């Protein structure tokens, strides 16, 4: 049985490692990745035409930066609100770190409005991309076994930049998957089922926006993965028929397809996400978070984790301990009946 702490540490490390490795291939096509890297399994610089080509090896993007931003709020025992999440995002963006170079269109637009004094309950109402999904890992960790608080935290974390049904369904799917993965009895199948329930609930919140039902797209991605003869075939099918772009119905669904194709193995899932093409840092980061929570820190390449921590100045072990310390008694995984509750679609 994987200890709860190991799962929390593995989840955070999976985010950072998938993100740092995927930075080199972000928004390259599968053909470009194969031509430049073959099959990438180590830290590497992007091609020289990529805007991040000269950045230090191992530096993470906004996926990890925003994940840790939320994690630090929770580790301090703060209740997430649109206001404190917005304040943390604005402070981070003002620091002009390398990670802010990667801001997606929804976050960039919302931050400009926040700095003009617009309410954080309004600024995210046009944000429909995957930014909500990429930052919620710690919400899944601290709310394992508490669905109502998990949903409240997802909505608060999403609101300043991604306060739409499309974005929140993605955030809820990932957070619910990680909450389930924190259970000692979780499997790839139960994690995927939890993600689908989360997507259904998430779509009930936020400003109206057009959205493909994410739970159905996850079903398609997992089906394609399970029907494939090997990981390469699975990635090509997911890339061709699901997509790996900024829409949650592409990149978030693709991440769950990658988890299924890897059979929950963290290293395989991260490497698959890095090499799938498109929004690779987000796909690899989400897949790494889920599989890291499933199997713990021991399932990840320790040398790579240490290098990513060194380059970025992280102490993920300490943060994981802080996340679970105030919540352990009320959030440690409980019985089947107390897990993320099922819904009828």
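^ Assign residues to that structure.
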């Amino acid at each position: 049985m994987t200890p709860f702490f190991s799962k929390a540490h593995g989840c955070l490390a999976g985010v950072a490692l998938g993100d740092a490795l995927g930075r080199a291939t972000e928004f390259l096509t599968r053909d470009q990745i194969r031509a430049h890297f073959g099959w990438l399994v180590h830290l590497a610089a992007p091609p020289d035409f990529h805007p991040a080509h000269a950045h230090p090896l191992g530096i993470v993007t906004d996926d990890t930066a925003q994940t840790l931003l939320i994690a630090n709020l929770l580790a301090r025992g703060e209740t997430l609100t649109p206001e404190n999440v917005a304040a943390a995002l604005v402070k981070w963006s003002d620091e002009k770190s390398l990670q802010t170079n990667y801001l997606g269109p929804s976050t960039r637009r919302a931050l400009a409005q926040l700095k003009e004094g617009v309410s954080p309950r309004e600024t995210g109402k046009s944000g429909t991309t995957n930014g909500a999904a990429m930052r919620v890992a710690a919400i899944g960790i601290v709310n394992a076994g508490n669905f109502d608080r998990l949903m409240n935290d997802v909505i608060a974390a999403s609101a300043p930049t991604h306060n739409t049904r499309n974005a929140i369904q993605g955030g809820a799917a990932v957070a619910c998957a990680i909450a389930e993965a924190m259970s000692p009895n979780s499997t790839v199948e139960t994690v995927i089922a939890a993600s689908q329930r989360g997507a259904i609930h998430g779509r009930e919140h936020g400003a109206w926006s057009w959205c493909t039902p994410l739970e159905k797209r996850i079903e398609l991605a997992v089906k394609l993965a399970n029907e494939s003869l090997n990981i390469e075939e699975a990635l090509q099918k997911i890339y061709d028929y699901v997509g790996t772009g900024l829409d949650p119905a592409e990149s978030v669904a693709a991440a769950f397809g990658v988890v299924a194709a890897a059979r929950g193995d963290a290293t395989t899932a991260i490497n698959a996400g890095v090499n799938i093409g498109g929004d690779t840092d987000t796909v690899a980061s989400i897949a790494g978070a889920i599989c890291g929570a499933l199997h713990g820190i021991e399932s990840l390449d320790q040398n790579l984790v240490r290098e990513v921590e060194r380059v970025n100045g992280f102490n993920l072990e300490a943060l994981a301990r802080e996340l679970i310390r105030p919540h352990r008694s009320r959030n440690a995984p409980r019985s089947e009946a107390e897990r993320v509750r099922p819904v009828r679609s």
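Confidence is low (pLDDT under 50) at residues 328-345.
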